[in-house]
Batch of 4 targets.
Target 1
Amino acid sequence: MTKKIFFILCSALCAISVFAQSDTDLDSLYRRFQIEEVEVTARALEKDVIQPQTLKGPELQRLNALSVADALRYFSGVQIKDYGGVGGIKTINVRSMGSQHTAVYYNGIQLGNAQNGQVDLGRYSLDNMEEIQLFNGQKSDIFQSAREFGSAGNIYLTTRKPYFKPDEHVHVRGKMRFGSFALANPNVGVDVKLKEDLSLTLDAEYVYSDGKYPFRYRRVLPNGETAYDTTAVRQNGDVNAVRAELGLHHYYRTTGFWRLHAYNYYSERGVPGAIVNNVWRNGERLWDRNTFIQGQWQDEWFGRWSTRLLFKYANDFTHYKNYDTRLLPSDNKYVQQEAYLSFANKIRLYNWWDLSVAYDYQYNILDRENLLLNAPKERFDRHSHWLSAATAFNIKDYLRIQASVLMTSIVNSPKFTPGIFFSFRPYPLIDLSINAFYKQSYRYPTFNDLYYTDLGNANLRPELARQHSVELAYKTTNTRRFEIATSISYYYNRVTDKIIAYPKGQQFRWTMLNLGTVKINGVDAKADASFYLPLRFVLRTRLNYTYQRAIDVTNPNDTYYGHQIPYIPWHSGSVVLGLDWKSNRGDHYGLNYSFIYVGERYSQQENTIFNHVQPWYTHDLSLYAEWGIKRWWLKANMEINNLLGQDYEVIRNYPMPKQNVRCTLAVRY
Amino acid sequence: MHISRKILDFLLCILSLCLFSCRGDEVIYPTIGTHVTDEVREGGLYVLCEGNMGANKARLDYMNLYTGEYYANWYGSQNPTQMKELGDVGNDIQQYGSKLYAVINCSHKVEVMDLKARHIAKIDLPNCRYMAFKGDKMYVSAYVGSVADPQMLGSVYEIDTASLTVKREVKVGHQPDELCVLGDKLYVVNSGGYILNQHDSTVSVIDLNTFTEIEKITIGSNPQRIRPDAEGKLWVSTDDCLVILDFCKGNQRLNVKASNISIIGSTAYVIDKDSHKLRAFSTIDLTELEQPIDITSFEHPYALLATNETLYITDAKNYVSSGVLYCYSYDGKEHWHTYTGDIPGHLCRINGAYELHSDSTKKDTTNYSPYIAKVYEYRPAMGQFVNELPKYEEGDDEASMCRKCEQAISHNAGGMISLGGWGGYITFGFDHAVQNREGRDIQILGNAYLMAGNELYGSSEPGIVLVSRDENQNGLPDDRWYELKGCLYDDPKTLHNYSRTYTREADTLQNPFHKHPYYPLWLNEDQYTLKGALLPSQTEIINGQIVQRILDFGYVDNKPNKDIEGTSFDLSWAVDEEGKPVTLSAIDFVRVYTAVDESYDLIGELSTEITGAIDLNINN
């Protein structure tokens, strides 16, 4: 079956090569395709020292993706851990350094989780998202907060900015999504132009799914006979979530603006747990509330000096309760608070030389309460300071250099981490660049690492990641026919002092230790292309391939020395093919196919048959149409995910849904 | 155009990648024994590896002490139809009567098996921990009683071992762990492991007649283990010390923080948590005894089992990778060690179970592999490929050469081994007995080929096949051999009592292509004699090529492998030493030896080569 699909795929590709030659005047169409409601970002990609991977606007909406995590699967160098279903935790690991080395920024300010350092990207909806970007190393622009220099991989989530045509004052959006496993997902949004340059956006969403998806375990004997073949329904995987966001944007003069953003998310969900022998249901429940308010003010003085102020206050509540009477009963509440302030400045000394300095401060509090033991509430807190200095040169457009140094002071004595980035473009008329960087970054112990009951170790040092990367990028555009961007990068990373759980003494007393060294060699290759075909068809393709060899080199005496670290496949990749057609009136139809492949990997440190996890690959298909009636737009979208109904697991013992469908109806004004 | 072409190439590259590493059926393969030791002892040892919570990696391994082979995931192999194998977190294993019982903690069950670990039944018990037996009853401690109460008290269940149903339940203290029966009383330690910093510290005494708790003895924080000695005392480990409950002379304490205890005769072996040492105490006067076994190099000494002859102890390493099982004699000498599953936590010695492997009466052949599973002997005659196929390396001995042969030709590995000149042999077997069914039973693969354009001639280096039944059931090929009669058996030119002696001295280079010793370098002796039958030469020179006339049937490495019939053998061809036909219902061992004694300047000596064998009665 798979072979057949590939045959079709190859035929399609052959077709492209033929179509791409035909000469038609589609320039105007191309423009219409590009300028959607989305504001076209001014940044010219080829001028970046660090070229991000980007998904934005219509391309983002076309993917078979419900959450940010689903969309990130289409980036190269990225591995997602997905525990299955709408409510299952989804975390991201960039270039095998571990999810805690990846920072996620929501409208420019980091989403924190001082408790466990992981951001569940399954909770961030795509409905309000305008752009997702992944920068390896750090963001290209040195005008950033100090903390942004501190992570090995950076994901920037940018929500929709209102964009009004001169005679418009209000935009209204409504969307209803239904799907398998009782998915109901309404979403409403309003953008209001309060006065010239001052606008307000509101977006609210509700998600419900009962999470009762069928899954199947099948094993065969060497002679091909079935050993067992069991299909069951996932239990306790329901989720109920409400999200509401409010944004206020004010752009004054041509240089300055301020933004305020308030975010509130509330959810209740079951934690479906691992499927093990004789256990089909687990009884844990989880309640979450994430609230934050953040603001940004930015202006420019004398045409050379830019200033930015950021602030954030976040208050997150988690309540975890285990109802399974057979297990250790637990009923825990956690409240995390975070206050954050950042002050960044950039000075343009010459047209080719920028300097920036930034200082960030953050205060975290974690309150922990065990409702069963009536133990006194515990409180942990932590002050963090970051100070950064960075500079960027642009030598006659041939060579761009960015260098930064960050001082981090969190509990331990201050640590300094440098980063240096080069981009060399040998030919002025050809968009070919050679990019390279070296960067160090620390991952600091989380509150769990430090203070988790009977496990934490307050003496932990931060974990250090050293990245070396080279990239060759090429881009070519023929506005009438095609647009192609392709790149290949090789990287070598080394993570030392890795924070891992280690059994201490006898009887399973685990503790956290700085024990572990991982060596990562990887290659990311990607190619994005659009082809403007006759009859107003546009074909878009996106190919990604990642090779990673991430091996444990902690101790030659370990049985797993030199083995691939858990859950990192050697090979992974994705293919997206989209065919769009726009009628004369501007009605819009599209078909999107995507294929994701994650190769074999191991669930534990030792690469033995007992830890082997099979490759998985899914074919997703979506069909959509958009009709314009006066100033109203109506959109319908139909998705089929895991078309062939593969029974797979991303994480061992956490089965993923088989074939499932989603339908979306949206209207906007 | 060229760019699209590049993309196409790239896509094809992905395509080929995917086709090579596509998801296949998830196959449960029968476990393959790893040869660990040449020592022969009665019976076997079950090793229950706990596996981490949520990993579903509880694994029951079996060490066949008779054959010296270790079988990883023995339970999974014996019970391939059990959904999700043994389960999550193995916590206890014991033999009682003709059954084997395993407590699988996070699968909330007691698995009941026969002594070969074949599933009989499961008993659902919530968060069950340990077992004890008396009469026709089994007692199981469980962290959670049938009714969830705010006190979180645990229970002990009484189970009828005939009907395997729960009969009675008694509530005990917090998180009861090990338990043991003494007379008509049951003693259960209450660990209180769920309650941080204020563990339970009692032993519950249960009257087995009324099945009620009659007493709670306070002994010390977080008791874990309770083991009876021969004098009727109970050794209980707590967080701080060992408490010896002596019902005659009063309780005593030993200042040892024990993580595990095993008592044999009048000696109690104890793993000391603080010093990471194995210590021994007299159960009579509690004095510490000298004991030479050194485990200080262990990362996390874990399971411990003292038996009459040897002591078994495991190292759980970092708890998330393979542990190691060690066997020591009491003089401190390590006999062998082998890797186990994750967290080898519980050991159970089984007596008289050596027939686990050569159980050929079993009709069900669905679990078996059709390919060679084991090579028992490898004794090539001198020859140009000896020490090359397989490769001899410094330090190799007969056993390791057998392992190399195994790697080459077992399980459809597709490698090749050479038997050298006349008389050189190999003995191999399958993971089961090969049944004598209608038609051909075994195909043995070699490297014979036909001459182009002349099907009567080719490269034929015939080897004779002998078969044997494991009559003494010891798992070793030391029983009577029967020859499978080939087409030249009755030929008057065939010499049936031929023999040759090979000596190290005679080993001189004979062939410019193979400048290495022809004598098997791993042998200690300087000469050896081989016996058997010699087939008449079939060699001729045709068109300047040295070729052999292809024999009709009944020899290895005589016809090309694609000729299945020509390379297959029927067990009905078996004859005894006098040439009388014998009826074999099944065989356990196959031996092949080179049956020609010829050497030519250009091609060297004729030697039978083997690349594998297939039991044709098993569907492949």
Note: Helices of chain B lie at 2-20, 74-78, 398-409.
Target 2
Amino acid sequence: MSRVMVGVKRVVDYAVKVRVASDKKAVDLANVKMSMNPFCEIAVEEAVRLKEAKKASEIIAVSIGPKQAQETLRTALAMGCDRAIHITTDLRTDQELGPKGVAKLLAAVAEKESPDVVIVGKQAIDGDMGCTGSMLAAYMDVPQCTFAAKIDLDAKTVERETDAGTEVVSFPSLPAVFTADLRLNEPRYATLPNIMKAKKKKMDTIAAADLVADLTDGNTVLEVFEPAPRAAGVLVDDVDALVDKLKNEAAVI
Amino acid sequence: MSAPRAIPPLVRDLYKRALLIGRDYPHADGMPYVRRVWKAALTRDRDEPAFADAALRKKVAKGRFMLREMVGVIQLKKYRAMKRRYYDDRDEELQGKMRELHRRGEEGR
Amino acid sequence: MHLIGPSDPLYHPDPSKPSPFTDPFWAFVWPGSWGIAEHLRRNPALVQGKIVLDFAAGCGVSGIAAAQLGAKHVCFNDIDEVSVAACSMNAALNDLPEEQVGLEARDLVGAKTNAQVILAGDVCYEAELAASVMGWLREEARRGVLVLVGDPGRWSSKPHLAGELGVEEKARFPLPAALKDDNSGLVETSVFQVRP
């Protein structure tokens, strides 16, 4: 049976319409509802299903962020994780702490916990970077299976989402990193009895600086602005019309 | 007004569960809406003579069913939002047209 | 609810028919305690005519099972007073005669009890407490008490419920759907005996 580690991120709730802060340097987080990144929920659910199928012996949930990240970890525990590790940092996890820093931190935890299976969301809905999983696999020096729509640990195969549809790939061995796509599963909802019981599960706290000295990734946010309202699209009747438009209006072919 | 009767524990538990789920319920008025609707539903029969255990449990079971429905709405809404936000460029009709375009390009080569 | 039998909500904990109490930890039937009740139902001789202690009783499901199966006396113990009150009410709801029921709301860890059987459901729930509770239960077992521990295989329990520690698995039951829903990630529960 394998040990499973899942990364979970606390982000602005998917239903919140974000505002840009007045200094145009970030999204305004004051009084904004936060919750677990939806793709992380899918990662947690997959881990819990592995445990329920007796393919996993233990699930460790890891989150990086301010004190409130513990609420997100409690949700993960309520969904069925066994214990949690909170890595504390004052850096804003939506922009100051990028995928590189996160991957280094998770790799440092993985070195201590030696999980066989690491599952993270394919991306977070705040930064939308979508590369933490890949970078983590690189730092851990293990195989990666990204955009997983189905994970089969026995057959060592993963069905993954691609632009054209899905493909099945096999991975050589565990440990490996998997990133969860939307179709991997439908995550369960953390109910009241589960939330109450999750309060007693073990949660360790480690300062980010004690794990990784350099968390920077060399990027600087210059300006944050709202997207321009999109011009209305046009419906093309058939392929000929599409070709015509691509040729004469967009000039791309 | 008559003195308020103690809230049966099962009903109190139901309301607690409703408030927890209500935080995520997708409605324009959010929590206040959930509070209002659930309070109304839970107090509707308040003045009826005390329920027999079985009758109360039947009502509570209906309440729990409604909670599961609310959770379903939350999950569906979130799934759809993610799908629209990250996958709708995979519009099937458009994909079909792109595939045909690709095929024509191959033929014309 | 009258008897812990297949028609009873305590027996088949269903979200629509829970134990009739709200609030914290005594409000739910716990998987370990449910497992002990199941085990006793299959092996009533374990408690018949015995003095039983339902340690960390919660809602009291395993103690009530023991009483109904013929235990001479069942003491419900929990450090939470409200839980003990809940046990008392559940015992009354199940028509247990008063002289068969005892209530104790203090921390018994370390004490020498007069029990012949100790039922301990879900006691390794908090990693920090598990060691001291199991140490005490082992001492009681050495004094000749039959100690049954119910546990659904939690991460915090695993180090304390191994065969090499003198804790022997006696039975294992799949959890009913409602208990699975309330305990995400758990699918079965076991009953262990702490060997003397």
Note: The interface with chain A takes residues 24-25, 27-28, 125-127, 154-156, 181-187 of chain C (CB under 8 Å).
Target 3
Amino acid sequence: MNDSIVSLVDKYHLIAAFAVVGLTMYVAYWLSRHLTADRLHGSAIAIIIGLVLAYVGGISTGGSKGLSDVTLFSGLGLMGGGMLRDLAIIATAYGVRFQEIKKAGLRGVIALFLGVLVSFVAGAVVAVGFGYTDPVDITTIAAGAVTYIVGPVTGATLGASSEVIALSIAAGLVKSILTMIATPATARLIGLDNPRSAMIFGGLIGTTSGVAAGLAATDARLVPYGAMTATFYTGLGILLAPTVLFLAVRALF
Amino acid sequence: MVIYGVALLAGCMLVGLIIGDVLGQLLGISANLGGVGIAMLLLIFVTGYLKDRGKLPEATESGINFWNAMYIPIVVAMAASQNVAAAFSGGLVAIVAGVLAVALGLALVPVLTGKKGDDARPLDPPASAAMPPSRATTSDRS
């Protein structure tokens, strides 16, 4: 009986994921209303629940895809994977006024370059502070602080050790997860309540999953503006980190 | 028909990703450069064009709006499939580097946004102004 239920849920994994996420959303919005009197956004709670479940799933299976490594919840990987996520992000652009994007365009581009640079420098400073002296290691860890995709791509290009590459992925993951949690908490403080600051935020932080979830937990209407710039961030990072930025690090160390 | 809306969305996504891919190859990087952003711009222009000519019936719109409304649940599923365990077991270097990158990025948002002019106005408060903005937003979306 139990086995047949498990195999059924496994077979219809995407459908099971819809049900699981729906239930999570219900619990999250209930908690938001009854425990926090709406002060903490329901979607922020839902994302935090998701992260906690991902941690539990990762610890119990030893896999790399959070809760979706548990057979029963494998559909979460498809539902929350890059394909459907990007489709939904693009759909949020429907109804956006192009004027808003044009007005913030230049600042968005500046934010992109500054964002990659600042994250890289932050990562590099920390790496040096922890005693790394090889330019390849410093660059790889610094690139990880840009995003968890830029890190390994840069490390592979420069021939970094797998240990350092793993470290750079971890740095990017910390950034992404922290962005999900810290964005709604600091939104008011940093004036994140309008399309312009959302585009700048997307450019400065850049990690797509972090920006996507952070803005969703803050004000879903800001998502398209932030996602618009963030989508260029990883590409720019891969362009700059192993080339210009690596040369700069090598010149210094 | 609803599928027209979904197909329009899918078409914009594919074209955007192809352009992003070509851009990446032109610059010699193994990544898609802004494909999703380009797809978003395409969707804005194409739906704007169709709407002006009255060629975007409600059923077509609902095909796009469904995925728009699925955004937050998809993000929750995404959060649940992140490698959170690895992030925390990566060691202190990874944690400090990640935290510092986020802190600096967030701190720079108000610096770059500058003084609030007309174009940095908060989004209009949703219809039910009595409710806190966060909650009203979700009712907007659902």
Note: Residues 98-129 of chain A form the longest helix (32 residues).
Target 4
Amino acid sequence: MSDLLTFYNGSALPIGDIPAPGPDQFLQTLGDHLDRGWRVISYFGVPEGDKTALFCLLAARSEGQLGMMQTLATHGHFPSLSRHYPQLQLFEREIAEQCGLVMDDHPWYKPVRFHHAFVPDRDGWGRSSSEQIRVGVMDFYQVAGEEVHEVAVGPVHAGIIEPGHFRFQCHGEQVFHLEISLGYQHRGIEQMLIGGPHPRSLFQMETIAGDTTIGHGQAYCMVMEALAGVRPTAAAQALRGIALELERLANHTGDLGAIAGDVGYLPTASFCGRIRGDFLNMSAVLCGSRFGRGLLCPGGTIFDLDKELRSGLLKSLDTARSELTTAIDLLWSTPSVMGRLEGTGAVPHEFAAELGLVGPAARASGLKRDVRQDFPFGIFRMVHIPVVTGYHGDVCARTVIRWQEAQKSLDFATEQLRQFPGGGHRVAVPAIGANRCAVALTEGWRGEICHVALTDANSRFRRYKITDPSFHNWQGLAMALRGQQISDFPLCNKSFNLSYCGFDL
Amino acid sequence: MFHALIARIKQGHRTMPYPKAPLRMPDRLRGYPDLKPEALSGESAACPFGALSTTDGGCLDLGKCLFCAECPAGPVSFTTDYRLAVTKREHLLVRPGVERHFAAPLPPDLRKLFGRSLKFREVSAGGCNACEADTNVLSTIGWDLGRFGIQFVASPRHADGLWVTGPVTENMRLALLQTYEAIPAPKIVVACGACAINGGPFQDAEAVHNGVDGFLPVDLYIPGCPPHPATILDGLLRILDKLR
């Protein structure tokens, strides 16, 4: 397969080795691979003068292989393939917004995060650089008809949650279409990383999505380690693995409780709200922060994990497992709960595949997709966590998946704590290499996290691309709402529980 | 039904006795800093967020500090004392040997109004969902914020105060200010977390505004990235004069 440079997760390669066909051949190769079941993990632009270098990262269906290619868009325009491959639509819009490269014939050509391009005087929509860009102002998709009405929600929502705008096209209670417009949380993380790594970078990585500190933090550490050519110790890998699964446990528990709350089943809602805190407290035992802040550093972990802490954690895990099991089992034995979960907000298998969904949302629709198994990294190279999949892709499937994954994570964390490897937890990280491309994938609790770094001749970041699982999955939520009652939106939304800031960057 | 009852009995009564009994913090928690004058006198590396200055006897700005596990500037270590919230911005400046500040009670007229029922409308203006999550957790059965008469509400019209998280992104600025406008006076503002106080990890980024301070009068500053729920609750109980 000479059209793509193939490699494994966590590698760094010379940028010059990445095949650089012309735009036509690039698009042909992209289409050919997608037709053969490959999928796009990341697709981004690097604005350079009046040109834009485009990089596309693809994943093979099996064999754990990643493939990369690049091309150069020399005019201000580039053909869009979204009509044929819906999984590309948001990537192409993002390229247009960040690099000012107009995507021709894009069926859904709208801004993503509402900001100016990385380079001045270029804009995908022909706006001048002095023009103020107003968030949420775009042509929303509209359904016409006498009895059709529109419901607009947000950016500020009812609960303590992040902002986003939702536009429903409804007929009575029934939703014809939901359009989601984000960008309110945009902090400009990728812009700030250009010319990095900076002393602030690690802290910004930990807050890309604050509930996924370990997932994103570990991806950043893997990128730095790949660029520097070091490998963390066994103890560091195990500790990172434990922290990642604790993060998954806390969030899955919270989601299970929130789903119960949204169908009005308060026992599980209130039990899980508290048990989630117990898992967060276990992360605080590791590093002092309930969200894992300050645990990771390139080269390993800042903290170690001694025997006393391990036995304390084992005890806490044991208690949490028994309490969580009691709380969750109530869901399955309560018909009024199951009646609300089953058949609600279904995303069929083929939609999920076409949209390129990841994480629990993809697995609930029967897609066997998990970075821990497909592109193993860190501890998951030695220890395999079984991947669980559902079938129906409804709220019920997304709920069951979370519980099954939580159980696997409990098993994994317990096993790792029992046989924790000896040795140091941190190695020195030398200077990073020049003109290299590093790719790191981790499986956060929402799904696949991808970080790609390109360094320049001075070993600084020429570009650092972050793809949060929510970037793939928001469209899945929109599709889940089709034909549903609008009153089921909170439940469907909770069953995805996607990140606003992880998307907005 | 029986399953639910049995589960309820198994789970037990879980609301913590705080503030009557003290809270136990994890050993590695990074709370109030321990500033040693001798460590501050020498040359130290720059804090990436400008939180530490070593001139004039040294000063740590808890509004900018992210309580890093390894202080990049070198000389700061942290205790597990979680009581960090204050009511004045300058009280976040910690100097060795200078008196420590806690959050002060609200003026008597506001305390009379809000003392038994204080409702907040929360707005995340670029928050990463950590401050939001640890604010949310106060309403769970473990902390049971409702027992203090404090509640987070859906509409600004029902609120007595605005609860801000995040560095205030340009894209959320208008929505934040409009939410504040929609809250009937008198009203208070809480800046929860390093971002809302001074921009946090995103300080001086082009797309953000370094917190809410420049826009609205802040009545309670809760430092941390994110603050521990105990830090948040400590601040709330102190402004309502339920804790001294």
Note: Chain A touches chain B through 68 residues (CB under 8 Å).
